[in-house]
Amino acid sequence: QVQLVESGGGSVQVGGSLSLSCAASAASGYTVGCMGWFRQAPGKEREGVARIGRYMSSTYADSVKGRFTISRDNAKNTLYLQMNSLKPEDTAMYYCASRSFPYCSSALSANSFDYWGQGTQVTVSS
Questions:
Q1: pLDDT at 107 over 90
Q2: Which end of the chain has less neighbouring CB within 10 Å, N or C?
Q3: How does DSSP assign 25-37, residue by residue?
Q4: Burial class (CB in 10 A: 0-12, 13-18, 19+), 5
Q5: DSSP structure class, residue 97
Q6: For the segment 1-49, what is each residue's pLDDT rounded down to a tens digit?
Q7: What is the three-class DSSP state of 2?
Q8: What is the pLDDT of residue 12?
Q9: Is residue 102 reached through a cis peptide bond, with omega within 30 degrees of 0 on the bond before it?
Q10: Any bridge partners for residue 97, and if so which?
Q11: CA 95 – CA 23 distance, rounded (Å)
């Protein structure tokens, strides 16, 4: 019922910034509820980065607080992630995820989402 397409990934230097976008295409009558960003680096488990409800309540992983900002435009069904002060440990494949309204959890758990994008690579070089 939902297709998610990420964009905006790339390679940047330490301390640089990137803006990611996730465009959601929903079937007629479907309302996108909670949306989130997850990432996975080689040799590591997938981890939650941030999530945001339809009415803008947000949760961030401790590792990105103060540096990343999640936002969304409900009219456009688009999710964003502004990443500043990037570090080498931010290097990973970033995935967009969603779940139908009104379901959402404050926890950054992959099990709380049922639709996923293909991912976009973010590489931070030192």
A1: no
A2: C
A3: EE-TT--EEEEEE
A4: middle
A5: E
A6: 899 999 999 999 999 999 999 999 999 989 999 999 999 999 999 999 9
A7: strand
A8: 98
A9: yes
A10: 36, 116
A11: 12
